[in-house]
Structure formats: C-alpha cells, structure tokens
Amino acid sequence: MNKGIKVGLLLIAVSILGTGCAQKVRIKALQPAEVGAMASKKKVAISEFKNDKVGLSGKIESQIARHKLDKKRYFTVLSRKDMAKVIAEQKLQSSELMDEATSAKIGKLIGAQAIINGEISSANAESGSYQEDREKCLQYYKDGSGCARYRYYKVTCKTTQASVSANINIVDVENGSVIYGDTISKDYSADSCKAGRTSLGLLVMDSGPKQILSKGQALTKLADSIASEFVYKLTPNYIYFSVGLISSIELETVTDAQNVKFETTLAYIKAARYDKAKKLLGDLMKELDGKSYAVAYVLGVVNEATGDFDQAKELYTMADDLTVEPVDEINLAINRIDRLIEKRDEARKQMNTK
User: Fold this and answer.
1) Cβ-based neighbour number of residue 159 at 10 Å
2) Cβ(20)–Cβ(247) under 8 Å?
3) Is 16 exposed, middle or buried (0-12, 13-18, 19+ CB in 10 A)?
4) Which residue from 157, 50, 33 is spatially nearest to 96, judged by alpha carbons?
5) Fewest CB within a 10 Å sphere: which of 12, 34, 80, 238?
C-alpha cells in the first residue's frame, strides 16, 4: 500500500476514533487505485499461470472482467482463447509468458495494453483428526452447589491447514517492462473443536463440533482471497467511514425555536434525508447570520455525505473560522477533507484515462 493511501486511511481512522458517542453520518469516498499505472492499461489479458492447480489465473480474470465502478466496467478483458491461439501459432508455452519480452510480444498481437502473468509458488493442504475428552453434567445438586453426576465421553476433532502463495506480475505491452509485481500469500487453519464450547464456572458445555473447510475448499477459498486482494489494487474503489455530528448550537442567543429546528435537522440526517437537512440548515445559517460553527459544520458533513467535498471544505473552513478554541470534530474535518479531495481527483483522473 503506497504512502498516500496509508495517510488517507490514517486520517479516516482518526476521524472515526475521535467521534465518540455522538450521532454519526456515513461517508462514501472515492479512492484511487494503488497501482496507478493501470489507469492507462485498461485492455488486459491474463495468461495461464505456471503450476496453477488452484485456478488462480481464472479467478483473477473473472474478477477483473466483472468489476464495475459507478456501474461501468473498468477493464476490457481480452479473450483467453485468442491468447492461446496466438501462443500456439508462435509455438510457445504458457510458462514462457513469465518472460517480459515474450509477454509484450503476445500482448501486441492480441491488442492488449497489459499482460498479467504469474505462478503458484506453493499450494499445500492437509487434514487430520484427533480425539478429545469431554464431560457433561447430567445432574446437579439440589442446593445448586455444583454438578452431582457427569457423563464422560470422547469426540473426534477434525483439522484442516492450507496455504497458497503466488507471484504475480503485470507487464506493460508497449515497452516490455514490469508495471507491478507482487507476492501474495494466504493461510487457512481450522479445528472443528476449537470454537464449539463455552465455560460456565467449572462446567464445560458441549455445543458440538463446528464445520470446517475440506482441503479442496480451503485452497479454493485462499485462491479467491488472493485474486480479490490483487484485483482490488488495480482499480479505484470506494471506502466508507463515519463522522460525528455536533449535537447543539453553541450560541447563547439561540432561540428555543432554532434549537428545535436544529434537533429536527439531526433527525432528518439520522434518517438519511439529506435534502430536508440541507434546507433546514440553510435556513438556520441565515437566521443566525452565519455565526454558528455548529450549523456550518453539520451542513459541511451533510455535503460530504452527499459527495460534494468542495462545498464541504468551504463550510468546514467557515466553521473553523468561527471557533474561538479548538473543536475536535472540526479539526478532524479540516484534516480529512483535503486528503479526500486529493484522492477523489486522482481516482477520477484514473477513471477518465483512456
């Protein structure tokens, strides 16, 4: 994960932690792809991975092909059949596509801008079983002092451990260079008896063994997870987080009617009726001559929640100018909004690149 994204997520995390128990609003924010170079490489082909017994290349191809952003497909995935035909005509093996020059050559022939290739460096799974002693209380003492009679028995516990590691490269067809390379590893470990029991004093109650994945299921799950993590890095995406509101108007001159209107506004915001909230807050801004930082801030949050980050920034700046001492919610908003605007603009640029 690059430094910019880390900083952005850190700011968001701080915003969430700093909001306490105040009423919160869910924010949707557009973030750029981690692999920004893919913005100009939207025609992609995925080769057959080397040693791919878990079907990872097919899973990556499927996820890329169906990925949509704002209801539009982000990538055009070129036919693997066309790719296989060209490889056969060139008398090559799929494994030879690990060579950047060869990938670039094949990519040009099929009209791709980028070739995704890779290999499964390891894919292992094993299962086993063991016996575990159990006890169950059959009869309690009448005075409630404990268990008078137990039943002792054994259960069979099943285990599954699996791991998959893959090396994945993206080759720029135009110049044969590696745009991005990554090694992604995933592990799965489960025991059918580890999470099926609860303790109550000295009494152990048996709730039965839990279901765990088979070796094949575990490998499939890990391959799916690797594919998802990889594809996530290639496209812009939306993140969601919550920010807190200010619950009352801070001015001493505020009237009871204005307080009621502000509370009504908060109720509309809670119901996600942002259209009504904007109107009421706009009215309050006029009534209070734009002197309330609470009203300006909450209106900023509503604009942020509806995707108008630029207007939200103006309102957060106004709220900040009206404060005579630091206000946590406003400080968090000021620090957050510039980063969100920067990331949104970067993501839009990626989306609009041909």
Assistant:
1) 16
2) no
3) middle
4) 50
5) 238
**Percent of the chain beyond pLDDT 90?**
76
Report the run of H or E that residue 13 belongs to, with start and end.
helix 3-17
Span between the terminal Cα atoms of the chain, in Å: 24
E strands of the chain, at which residues? 24-31, 43-46, 68-69, 72-73, 76-77, 114-140, 147-172, 178-191, 197-200, 203-206, 237-244
Identify whether the C-beta of residue 21 lies closer than 8 Å to the C-beta of residue 246: no
Asked whether 120 and 166 are in contact (CB, 8 A), the reply is yes
Which domains can be identified in the chain, with CATH numbers? Answer: 3-31+246-352 (1.25.40.10), 33-235 (3.40.50.10610)
Please compute the mean of the pLDDT values over residues 186-193 and round it to a whole number.
93
Using the predicted structure, report yes or no on whether residue 196 has a pLDDT greater than 60: no
Dump pLDDT digits (tens) for 265-287. 999 999 999 999 999 999 999 99
Q: Report the share of the chain in percent with pLDDT over 70.
A: 88
On the 0-12 / 13-18 / 19+ scale of CB atoms within 10 A, 114 is buried
Q: Is the predicted pLDDT of residue 20 greater than 70, yes or no?
A: no
Name the pTM for this structure. 0.80
- Matching residue, tokens 């734009």: 290
* Residue 116 buriedness (CB in 10 A; 0-12 / 13-18 / 19+): buried
Residue 312 belongs to what H/E stretch? Answer: helix 309-322
- Residue 333's closest CA among 2, 5, 25? 25
Give whole-number Cα distances, 188 to 94, 122, 148, 161, 220, in Å.
Answer: 29, 14, 41, 6, 11
Q: CB within 8 A of 335, min separation 6: which ones? A: 11, 14, 15
> Which phi and psi angles does 57 have, rounded to 5°?
-60, -40
Distance, in Å, from the CA atom of 239 to the CA atom of 237, rounded to the nearest integer, reads: 7
